[in-house]
Write a structure and sequence with these properties.
The chain is mainly β. The chain has one domain. It is 6% helix and 40% strand. Strands 7-9-8-17-18-14-10-20 form an eight-stranded mixed barrel. A hairpin with a 2-residue loop joins strand 15 and strand 16. The chain starts with 9 loop residues before the first strand and ends in a 6-residue tail after the last strand.
């Protein structure tokens, strides 16, 4: 699959969150001889355009890298490295940054949330400008994504859905298999919330995170636990894979 935006100059609003980072001006490379994808980002705090030191670099047909974030336009995936952060204790987040709420997150990463945001927007993710409902019986607005983790073990690569690594206490088993919701975070007075808080994927309802858990129990911050028998050791390196689903995909 190819994305037409990659062949021309485009101005992207950062959806609900993206009222968030405001707007992103990307010069994208399909033209012959193009070697990188420079980005100019409007600062959430000042409203002024500031140059990003990062560039989207093509590393294969349809595949680009922004620092440690990789964007694959054919597979509709965004991937980045993380570390196993917890193997026991209550969880409220699946992934946060190293400056985020690491005392309650399964994984931690040094990747910047706004870079993940840019990559998802380039894939066509829309997110939402609507508030997330407090009633867990109501669906969350946003685009469905799938999340997988991979890591090396005994010389082989193991790849597993993120849900299989989290226990749902109420269901007395692993989280139910299914999608997550990209809502896109939001803009606050102190800036782009996901970047400020370091919240990337939340297990409990959190409008400031980039991605939320749509399952029952998301209102209960005591409901989620790691599944240590399926997790690699503490501080092990893993790769996170986020795939944007097609809107008509079941």
């Amino acid at each position: 699959m190819s994305i037409p935006h990659l062949s021309r100059r485009g101005l992207f609003g950062l959806n609900g969150a993206g009222c968030g980072l405001a707007s992103v001006l990307l010069v994208l490379s399909d033209p012959p001889g193009a070697s990188q994808l420079p980005a100019t980002i409007e600062s959430p705090a000042s409203g002024k355009a500031v140059a990003s030191n990062s560039t989207f670099k093509p590393i294969a047909p349809g595949v680009f890298e922004l620092d440690r974030v990789r964007l694959d336009t054919q597979r509709r995936t965004v991937s980045f490295p993380a570390l196993v952060n917890m193997r026991e204790g209550n969880l409220e987040y699946l992934i946060v940054t190293t400056t985020g709420k690491t005392h309650e997150s399964l994984l931690r990463t040094e990747v910047k949330p706004f870079q993940i945001q840019l990559a998802l927007l380039l894939l066509g993710a829309k997110g939402t400008t609507n508030p997330l409902p407090e009633d867990p019986g109501r669906p969350l607005p946003g685009d469905p994504v799938e999340i997988e983790l991979s890591w090396k073990t005994a010389g082989k690569t193991r790849r597993i859905r993120a849900e299989e690594l989290v226990t749902d206490r109420k269901a007395a088993g692993a989280m139910s298999r299914g999608h997550w919701i990209y809502n896109g975070s939001r803009l606050r007075e102190d800036g782009f919330a996901a970047q400020v808080d370091g919240s990337i994927v939340s297990l409990i309802t959190d409008a400031d995170a980039l991605i939320n858990n749509p399952r029952p129990g998301r209102e209960d911050d005591d409901n989620w636990l790691p599944r240590p028998k399926d997790l690699p050791p503490l501080n092990s390196s893993v790769e996170v894979w986020i795939r944007l689903r097609l809107r008509n995909e079941q």
